[in-house]
Design brief:
The chain is mainly alpha-helical. It has a single domain, classed as Tetracycline Repressor, domain 2. 75% of the residues lie in helices and 0% in strands. The protein is built from 11 helices and no strands.
């Protein structure tokens, strides 16, 4: 039951935001009472915390799977950020507004734990990309990862880019993908071009 409550509550948070959602509204699709919810969670914030762990945990699992399935490290990097953007922009913008405004510490704590996993994962990919000749040898992986994170945060967590009224994919193409291309060797750039030519066919 706990897993069902988490899954449904996460869907509800992502769709309707956080502030206006009561525990009763969150679990309404399950047809259970709030008493049942409080058997597993101490309050709404505890439920939200565990929902966020589930949300970002799923994303991490997707990244791990992508790394295992995608042999080319450059394409793995591109696909990862494309997928992350799809997930973030698939949520109601009110969700992230509420999260940033009302629960910034909770978000920061959870993201900090996730970033440690992400950083290790991205560092492995960048190191592989350098050793295979797809990425430049003068790259400092930790600096590159932090730079991408700053750009991504600006896109998804601030109003900086909203004034352009662009689709998420277009935003990524004009920001993170431009940065990633700058990390590439000629060999890496050729693979990126091949990748785009196949998905545009």
């Amino acid at each position: 039951m706990k897993e069902e409550i988490l899954a449904i509550s996460l869907q509800q948070f992502l769709k309707y935001g956080i502030r206006k959602m009561t525990v009763q509204k969150l679990v309404a699709p399950l047809g259970i009472s709030t008493k049942t919810v409080y058997k597993y969670f101490s309050n709404k914030e505890d439920l939200l915390k565990q929902c966020l762990n589930l949300h970002y945990g799923k994303l991490t699992a997707e990244f791990v799977l992508l790394k295992e399935m995608e042999e080319n490290p450059v394409i793995a990097l591109f696909k990862t950020w494309q997928r992350a953007t799809q997930v973030d922009f698939g949520a109601n913008h009110i969700f992230y507004h509420d999260l940033n405004y009302y629960f910034p510490k909770l978000q920061d704590d959870i993201l900090e734990k996730q970033y440690k996993k992400y950083n290790n994962w991205f560092e492995e990919i960048i190191t592989a990309g350098v050793s295979q000749g797809y990425l430049r040898k003068d790259i400092i992986p930790k600096v590159a990862i932090e730079s991408i994170r700053v750009i991504y945060t600006a896109i998804t967590r601030t109003p900086s880019y909203s004034k352009f009224k662009l689709a998420p994919a277009t935003l990524i193409q004009n920001t993170i993908e431009v940065f990633l291309r700058g990390l590439c060797t000629d060999k890496g750039l050729k693979f990126i071009q091949q990748y785009y030519s196949t998905i545009l066919e």
